Amino acid sequence: xxxxxxxxxxxxxxxxxxxxxxxxxxxxxxxxxxxxxxxxxxxxxxxxxxxxxxxxxxxxxxxxxxxxxxxxxxxxxxxxxxxxxxxxxxxxxxxxxxxxxxxxxxxxxxxxxxxxxxxxxxxxxxxxxxxxxxxxxxxxxxxxxxxxxxxxxxxxxxxxxxxxxxxxxxxxxxxxxxxxxxxxxxxxxxxxxxxxxxxxxxxxxxxxxxxxxxxxxxxxxxxxxxxxxx
Length: 230
Prior knowledge:
Elements: H1 10-23, H2 36-43, H3 47-60, E1 63-66, E2 70-73, H4 78-91, H5 95-117, H6 120-139, H7 144-156, H8 161-169, H9 171-181, H10 185-203, H11 207-229
Antiparallel strand pairs: 1-2
């Protein structure tokens, strides 16, 4: 993935490479960078040059260090949007319907293009998540994480970097909304069926059907959220 460094200012070249990989979607939000020793070998640079570049990328908001000094790709929109989103929803819970409305626009578009652009690797990822959902459903476990993972994987299948980063920004909000509203078995079973239909439409490369099934799913989510609040 990474290329050997040839320019004199090696830290700048590392920064350029990583930013380009993020821009191209080859490094996605939440991806963990290889360990420092491996990066030094791949880039062919010294430890000080690598650390200078990584510190610069962290300062620019492209990377973040967490969980025992491990480095992850950060959503390019998260710092500007995620906290204000959460605060806005907590201050006025009616805004959840604004979020659903925006999701309808984003995700119907996303499903349509995912069905056109999906790769075999994308299909395998979506199928893996569907399998995890089914296992959790059969065992009576919560699966809000898999629900959010599915929508994020669908965004990644569009191969549109901005779409992916924007979905990653609202990832936690997706998890919270599912956890609060969809608790009984009948509703979670229906959600699973909807996700499975979306998956099949994308797998079969049927853009119109994928868009239709996502809209059907989000209309159902909206109706259940309204019922939950009444």
